[in-house]
């Protein structure tokens, strides 16, 4: 593991507004193409990170449920098909073993499955969750299986910019570095739609920028991987969840765009998104609640019919996809889809204008 930069384990303090964070500032690096993150520049640490406006306060509905998540026996390894050119699962790249990961929404559901799989692969993991009780219970359970020094639980409202920034600082103080960031926390709340946008999209953007500040080679770090959790609802209309769908569409657009900028800046950081179908997590329970669905509660039976048609995934399958997208360094700006019918596969996009024109 590389040592933190001698001056400080934290990015320098902001010194004025910038067009966008220095970790994403483009340089003359050739085509703006999706692909592996660029090589190290070999220069000094980059300029101070851009200070983003503080986000509003919210909480994650998925963290309010105190039911402990349990996994059934692991399913067969999901097959892959339709990968982006050059983006096969067999590709080389970062190995999870020995790396430090931060996972938001980590106490249960998909987040907990991510934590367990990362630990199984030899990583150290910071568990971040709003639900303090569920988070402590999760860590205690993990400590029965893994070395207690491998995990750290931090309670945090990801929609509070100050709390989120402080959480990243504490993780780096504790483990000395950050290599993998999984922005997983999310809610389904059509009634309080501002909360949904704040948590599902704004906090993901905030977390991504903080991750870039702490991992970018432009800031003297070693590079890394950022994974932003979207959904199949981010790839198609969802009449019963228009705001949720909009937030997940936003994650895909932001992640793909930021991936290009990070590559062009030679930051050494890759950014990808994962879009699962219906997953067996507490968030599925929200479709039964008027306080979550608002006027769309009338569609709950149609949603249940969709679940029966498409099937429900176990979180452990999503965790396998996470390891793939971390360790394959040909994947940057990739949108991984995970469904019961096709397993792990990728969304295809037309050639970008920047690629075709060589800009």
From TrEMBL:
GO biological process: ductus arteriosus closure; female pregnancy; negative regulation of cell cycle; parturition; prostaglandin metabolic process; regulation of prostaglandin catabolic process; transforming growth factor beta receptor signaling pathway
EC main group: oxidoreductase
A GO CC term attached to the entry: cytoplasm
Superkingdom of source: Eukaryota
Molecular function via GO: 15-hydroxyicosatetraenoate dehydrogenase activity; 15-hydroxyprostaglandin dehydrogenase (NAD+) activity; identical protein binding; NAD+ binding; prostaglandin E receptor activity
Catalytic activity: resolvin D2 + NAD(+) = 7-oxoresolvin D2 + NADH + H(+); prostaglandin E1 + NAD(+) = 15-oxoprostaglandin E1 + NADH + H(+); resolvin D1 + NAD(+) = 17-oxoresolvin D1 + NADH + H(+); prostaglandin E2 + NAD(+) = 15-oxoprostaglandin E2 + NADH + H(+)
Skewed-composition ranges (Gly residues): 84-93
Name of the protein in question: 15-hydroxyprostaglandin dehydrogenase [NAD(+)]
Species assigned in the record: Ornithorhynchus anatinus (Duckbill platypus)
This protein's encoding gene: HPGD
